[in-house]
Amino acid sequence: MSDDTGDVIDDLFAVIEDRKANLPTDSYTTSLFTHEKGENAVLEKLGEETTELILAAKDDDREELAHESADIVYHLLVLLAMKDMDVDDLRAELAERR
Ligand SMILES: N=c1c2ncn([C@@H]3O[C@H](COP(=O)(O)OP(=O)(O)OP(=O)(O)O)[C@@H](O)[C@H]3O)c2ncn1[C@@H]1O[C@H](COP(=O)(O)O)[C@@H](O)[C@H]1O
């Protein structure tokens, strides 16, 4: 794996936290934080992306599987930020299971 993917999740979470703090316009992430549906907007997205992930898996479409996995991880990180959680909470939970 190349070095530029090493901290991609930390970097993405930092961008999400920045969007949450500053709410710039023309930002999809901002639109999730300010959506009239509240957290339901991101929850619905997670549901849709999970369905798409399942279909990609059933089709054995590895490229689509990677695409939908990335969509899910992004929306999951937005949800964690909405709940004032940190990506380290996810890491800690996974580490405890080792
Ligand atoms: N990783 C993501 C990311 N993943 C998914 N999405 C958005 O999530 C939405 C997914 O909804 P849809 O499934 O309806 O969109 P779609 O393109 O039809 O997707 P598929 O049906 O193909 O799965 C799209 O609008 C995507 O642009 C993302 N939007 C932003 N990011 C990251 O967040 C950063 C900040 O983005 P902004 O907040 O927009 O500046 C970006 O630089 C990226 O690094």
Automatic annotation (TrEMBL):
GO annotation, cellular component aspect? cytoplasm
- Gene3D superfamilies, sorted: MazG-like
Q: Does the keyword Transit peptide apply?
A: no
Q: What is its EC number?
A: 3.6.1.31
Q: Which InterPro entries match?
A: HisE, PRib-ATP_PPHydrolase-like
The record ties this protein, via NCBIfam families, to:
histidine_hisI
Protein name, UniProt field: Phosphoribosyl-ATP pyrophosphatase
Source taxonomy lineage? Archaea, Methanobacteriati, Methanobacteriota, Stenosarchaea group, Halobacteria
